Amino acid sequence: MAGIYLHIPFCKQACHYCDFHFSTSLKYKDEMLQALRKEIALQKDYLAGETIETIYFGGGTPSVLAPDEITRLIDAITGIHTVAANAEVTLEANPDDLDGQKLSGLRATPVNRFSIGIQSFYDEDLQWMNRVHRAAEAEASVMRAQDAGFENITIDLIYGYPLLTDAKWKHNLSKAFDLQVPHISAYSMTVEPQTALSAFISKKKQPPMSEQQSAEQFTIMTDAMELKGFEQYEISNFCKPGHYSRHNSNYWRGVKYLGLGPSAHSFNGDTRQWNIANNARYMAAVLQERKLPAEVEQLSEENRLNEYIMTALRTAWGLDTNKLEAIAAGSADILLKAAEPYFTDGQIQQTGSIITLTQKGKLYADNIAAGLFF
């Protein structure tokens, strides 16, 4: 089994915190879609005939595409690859794009899961983030999608930024629960270089993010999720039983995937590759030169060990020392020695060959993983 990710590099406007690759101009949308269909053909052998279990439209804002444009991309995939009958097909969407007409059109496509970028149910917070939609629209978009027959919906929320008091965060979580969605992703606000938010902070126009606030709101969130029957199956992802994101879970479990579009990454077990993050150069390479504008990295034993540690430790399934041994003999003993301080401090725990984070350890997941790297 394998997955396919399509990067749709268009947005209506730039969110202040976002460092993903995108353009706010749709002028070359048709050419970009043509290039994506061409890349699907150019990359036909990358997954070596694996059946496609998941297709994920990310970005950018894939919901700027019309339903027929989405269908043509999926048709290009099914024309080359074997796609599982029960494949999970996810479309990331902004609330303002999900009107009745768009949803009706999407019902006729293979899309069967939405990831809706709500972020907050407060207008002042959305304006601070420079989001296009407003709070009422966020709530209404989920209900419209549900009324249109889409049940497999996840929503995104953000916490740990100056405007968000604990009371507001609890309200956002309560609103999310009221919508009866089976999956919620929630991320701590991160200040990425070369974003508007980073510039505002450096110019003293905005205060820096508070690690203490983020930690406290993380705890508020995990407690609330547990009470509502959501399983935390990855640091930032929560679901009702049976509603894991199959696509993202495969990332964390080391399943092969093909990334299409500018800036998209691919992984086949032995190599990792990434496309150029430039729309014009990507389209020129694919359409005119008929070649893939990508850099390829042959993964060393150390790369594979560290990547497995970083991804597996973040999940409820944990890190399996047997898998470490399968990558490199003797690596499990080395890791267990490095892990001793984290066991002693109660940040990780072990059952058989499986090492998982404790609730305390989840607050320090990235630091723990870095401390275990080879």
UniProtKB/TrEMBL annotation:
Q: What is this protein called?
A: Heme chaperone HemW
Compartment(s) where it occurs, according to its Swiss-Prot or TrEMBL record: Cytoplasm
Q: Which organism is it from?
A: Mucilaginibacter psychrotolerans
Domain Radical SAM core: residue ranges: 1-231
User: Record's superkingdom?
Assistant: Bacteria
**What is a GO molecular function of this protein?**
metal ion binding
Please name the taxonomic classification of the source: Bacteria, Pseudomonadati, Bacteroidota, Sphingobacteriia, Sphingobacteriales
Keywords (alphabetical) are: 4Fe-4S, Chaperone, Cytoplasm, Heme, Iron, Iron-sulfur, Metal-binding, S-adenosyl-L-methionine
Mind telling me which Pfam families this protein's record contains?
Answer: HemN_C (PF06969), Radical_SAM (PF04055)
User: Which GO terms of the cellular component aspect does the record hold?
Assistant: cytoplasm
* Protein function: Probably acts as a heme chaperone, transferring heme to an unknown acceptor. Binds one molecule of heme per monomer, possibly covalently. Binds 1 [4Fe-4S] cluster. The cluster is coordinated with 3 cysteines and an exchangeable S-adenosyl-L-methionine.
Q: Which gene encodes it?
A: hemW
Output one GO BP term. porphyrin-containing compound biosynthetic process
Q: Which family does it belong to?
A: Belongs to the anaerobic coproporphyrinogen-III oxidase family. HemW subfamily.
Query: Cross-referenced InterPro entries, in alphabetical order?
Result: Coproporphyrinogen-III_oxidase, Elp3/MiaA/NifB-like_rSAM, HemN_C, HemW-like, rSAM, rSAM_horseshoe, rSAM_sf
